[in-house]
Structure formats: structure tokens, C-alpha cells
């Protein structure tokens, strides 16, 4: 079985190499003298096979066979192009799960005005799936069922990958009970994906809310030292969702659930692209996406694998410095991050091999093997650190940071634990002070939204935030749904107006602040007895907050149920958010070791295996 697998991989390499030669020599196999008027093979193809077999030092018959396969596919593609021009019927190449894959391409003809749901149904019917238990990925995006193919940018000759949510053995099981269990399993997987989406949305929304850090779970974004980063609100939610989807996808990768991991990773990519290469998370995400396609045995379906890997390399350079000098300056070492470069070189080697670039593949794979030797950890050293009370993850990361020295690693881990404990204590205190400052401003009658914006502009200084609010009374109109602040918004009474009899603009001020005497007095005093000229009095629509209707209390039970479901979704996300901030750098490298050896054997044995 291993020999057949190696031979098949070698044949794929030869096909890629021959395709490369044909492209370089500008040879069009679908035209004479390689194809006659009846679309049959021409005699010139044999001469071409002789030329290329000599160039590759390979078996001439094998080369001729592969060139003929390439010619037939080119004719088939040309026929599809002509058909599309005359009838508008597009051809989509379907990439099936490995267990259903055959030697030849799987093509599906369809019109592009149909919906994503109709295409999914067509694929399910044609290839024997239950349509509710598959997902379709086209152009690195999940197919949206409610939109047409045209609206989603689907074109003629596009590639579509089928992700199966059920176990691969289910098609051979006939027992009704077993099939029912598998259907339930597929439904559970789909629900997990939907809960992931909802849980991340809730946590991202909480990042913009005012929550008590002692009682309410929330996510925060920190730099490489563990300290919170100030990010504009417009970017914060997108980054939160991007990182959340990425972490969830990584959790599925660890469990080798690649079919569920990929949609999460692609969703992360969708939110991340606006931030591009300003953070190394984006580079890691690109590696994870390519790795996921590779583990699904669908790397050929990812047309821009090279682009993603180059983008990751560029991003690492921007974040870490030319020779990792910025990383060493921040962290004191770069041993742990070498794991990312090993994965990068390995994937570059694999991609080059499948593109027919044998020498480039050998170069990258050897670089990956060299890094593996540097990063290999003696199990006895991990055991020694476990005996000291450290976790296996801390042991691996510490040993790689300290070049395998156990004593240095123990000191490094201990120091890092103490640093993180202090940083977390400081960050928690910072959040507590922010919550107190927001509550102070709310107590004066300002909305939560206005208080947060003023404190953001004042870098957290309460006195400066109050000055900003007093100088910009229009900020008071930054309303939210907070009932505590809405309760203060009432029409001014005559008694309140009488209190300001010495001020001519008192009635206007009270109307602006809807009867809030304290805010009206402070603003008039701060602005020399008058309102700023840019405050436009909009007295219409300044009605008080509606009272609670009977239906509000009637919906309490439903709200409680929704709250339980949201709590479940949030908890499921939090379970997969790693405790260690460098979890993405931790790897046993067991899979990488096997794959490096496997592909190096392919590269070394290309000629002998073909002969």
C-alpha cells in the first residue's frame, strides 16, 4: 500500500513537471500536430514524450501516458468552454473527500443563476451525499445557500471542495440504528458550528460593553508580553471575531477534525483580511489554512497556496524583523517561534513538489528537517520539568526558548509565570477602575456609550473625560439601551426651570438634557452661562422612555431560555481558548517529522520510482 501511494505521488509530480515543460515551451496539445481534426492523438506526441523523457531521465512510455492524459483533459476543458459560450452552462470541478476520490476529474455542469442551495442539492444527488450533511467551499469561502452562484463570484471552470460532516464509513453501514446515530452526529457537528458563531459574536459584543471582570466571562486582546492593546472600536470587533474563529479552528485542528476546522479558519480569514500583516496571528492563520487543505488531501483545490505561504513569510518578517531581531528584543529569544518556520518550510516544500519543482522542494524540505533537529526535545528533559510541577506544554516551550537547558528552562518558566500573574493583576485592576469611572459618569446622567467614548479620548482619566463631555454636550445624545441612564431622560418641569431663573438659556439647556438639572448646570457653568454654538436643539422626538408593557414580562421565560443557550455557546468557546498565551507555538512535531521524511523520500526517489 505504501509503495502504491509513493508511486501515485510520483506520478502526480511527473504530471506537474510535464505541465510545467509544456507551459514553458508554449505547446498546445489540443491543436495539431498533437491532436488531429477528429480530436484523436497525433503522431507528434510520441516525439514530444521522447524529448521530455530524455530530459527527465524517465521511462518514455510513462511520460507518453501522462502527456496523453493532459491532452485529453485539455480537450475536455476546451469542449466545456465552447459549451459555456453557446449555452451558458458552466462546468465546476468537484473535489470529493479522499474516500470517494477517483483518478479522473469530477465535473458538474450547471447554470450560474441557481442558488447555493440548489448547487448543494445537485452535488449531493450526483455524488451520493445527504445534502444537509455536506458543506461546499468555493474560492476559499463557504457557499451561501440563499444567494445565487453569480452573486457569490462563482464562474465557469471554478473548483468546489466538498466537506463531509459524517464519518467516512457511514456509506457502507446499512443498519438503521447506526445510520440514525450518524445523522445525529452530523446534526450535532452543524450545531457546533452555529454555536461557535453565536458564542464568538456574544464575546465580541461584550468587549464593547461594560462588564464586571470578576463575574462575566469576556475576551481581551493582548500584545506579545500579555498586556491589553488599545484598538479603535471599529477594528476591535473584527479582530476579536477573527482571532476567536482562528482559535476555534485551531482547537479542531488539534483534534484532527479538519472538515470542521476549515470553515472556522476561512471565517477567521474573512475578518482578518482588513488588518492584514500587522500582527503575526495573520501569518499563523495562513499556515493553518494551507495545512488544513493539505491534511484534507485537497491542496490542489487551493489555487493560491503559494500566495498564502509567501504572505505568511512576509508577515513574519514584518513582525519579527529581518533576522528575528525585533522578536529577540521583545522576548529575549526566538527558539519557540522557529516552530512556525518549520511548518512554513515544510508546506513550501510540499507545494513545490506538487508543482513539479523538485529542487526547490528538496531545498525547503531540508531546511524543515534541519529546524526539526534543532527543535527536537529529549523526552527525559520534559519528564524532569514535569517532576518540578510544570506542564508538558510549559516544558516544551521553555526548553525551546533555552536551547534545551533544563535549569534555564525551569527559571524561564518560573519568571514568565510571575510576570504574567503581575500583568493579569494590573490588567484586572485597570478594568475595575474603568468600570468605576464609567459608573461615575453614568451617575451624572451620561449614557454608557458617551462615558466610554469620553474616557477613550481621555486615555482613561476621569477628570479629563468629564471636561470633554462638558465641552461637547452633544455627546450626551450618544444614547444606548441602558435603562439606568434612560430613566433620567424626562421633560423638564417648571420647578426645574425656576431653579435657573438667573440664566436665560436655562430652558434650552434643560430641554437638551431632558430635565437633568445637574448636567444642565455643569454645562452652562463650564461654557460661561451659554450652550456651545454647535449644539443644535432638536426638541422633537425627545419623549421619555416608554414604560414596560405587559408583554415584556410575558417574554421573561423565553428570555431566560435564550440566556441559557447563549451561556452554553459562550462556555463552548471558552473551553477552546487556550490558557497559555503561546499555545500556538507549542507542538510535539510528531506529524511534521513523519511528513518531512515522507516527502524527502518522494524527492529522492523520483527517478527510480518512475523507472
Automatic annotation (TrEMBL):
<dbReference type="GO" id="GO:0005730">
    <property type="term" value="C:nucleolus"/>
</dbReference>
<dbReference type="InterPro" id="IPR029071">
    <property type="entry name" value="Ubiquitin-like_domsf"/>
</dbReference>
<dbReference type="GO" id="GO:0097413">
    <property type="term" value="C:Lewy body"/>
</dbReference>
<feature type="domain" description="UBA">
    <location>
        <begin position="426"/>
        <end position="472"/>
    </location>
</feature>
<dbReference type="GO" id="GO:0034341">
    <property type="term" value="P:response to type II interferon"/>
</dbReference>
<dbReference type="InterPro" id="IPR039749">
    <property type="entry name" value="NUB1"/>
</dbReference>
<dbReference type="InterPro" id="IPR058666">
    <property type="entry name" value="SASH1/NUB1_homeodomain"/>
</dbReference>
<dbReference type="InterPro" id="IPR009060">
    <property type="entry name" value="UBA-like_sf"/>
</dbReference>
<dbReference type="Pfam" id="PF26285">
    <property type="entry name" value="SASH1_Homeodomain"/>
</dbReference>
<dbReference type="GO" id="GO:0034612">
    <property type="term" value="P:response to tumor necrosis factor"/>
</dbReference>
<dbReference type="InterPro" id="IPR011990">
    <property type="entry name" value="TPR-like_helical_dom_sf"/>
</dbReference>
<dbReference type="InterPro" id="IPR041207">
    <property type="entry name" value="NUB1_ubiquitin-like_dom"/>
</dbReference>
<feature type="region of interest" description="Disordered">
    <location>
        <begin position="480"/>
        <end position="499"/>
    </location>
</feature>
<dbReference type="InterPro" id="IPR015940">
    <property type="entry name" value="UBA"/>
</dbReference>
<dbReference type="GO" id="GO:0032436">
    <property type="term" value="P:positive regulation of proteasomal ubiquitin-dependent protein catabolic process"/>
</dbReference>
<protein>
    <recommendedName>
        <fullName>NEDD8 ultimate buster 1</fullName>
    </recommendedName>
</protein>
<feature type="region of interest" description="Disordered">
    <location>
        <begin position="535"/>
        <end position="582"/>
    </location>
</feature>
<feature type="compositionally biased region" description="Acidic residues">
    <location>
        <begin position="561"/>
        <end position="582"/>
    </location>
</feature>
<feature type="coiled-coil region">
    <location>
        <begin position="410"/>
        <end position="438"/>
    </location>
</feature>
<keyword id="KW-0539">Nucleus</keyword>
<dbReference type="GO" id="GO:0010498">
    <property type="term" value="P:proteasomal protein catabolic process"/>
</dbReference>
<dbReference type="GO" id="GO:0005829">
    <property type="term" value="C:cytosol"/>
</dbReference>
<keyword id="KW-0677">Repeat</keyword>
<dbReference type="Pfam" id="PF00627">
    <property type="entry name" value="UBA"/>
</dbReference>
<dbReference type="Pfam" id="PF18037">
    <property type="entry name" value="Ubiquitin_5"/>
</dbReference>
<dbReference type="GO" id="GO:0006511">
    <property type="term" value="P:ubiquitin-dependent protein catabolic process"/>
</dbReference>
<feature type="domain" description="UBA">
    <location>
        <begin position="376"/>
        <end position="416"/>
    </location>
</feature>
<keyword id="KW-0175">Coiled coil</keyword>
<feature type="compositionally biased region" description="Low complexity">
    <location>
        <begin position="543"/>
        <end position="560"/>
    </location>
</feature>
<dbReference type="GO" id="GO:0016567">
    <property type="term" value="P:protein ubiquitination"/>
</dbReference>
<dbReference type="GO" id="GO:0005654">
    <property type="term" value="C:nucleoplasm"/>
</dbReference>
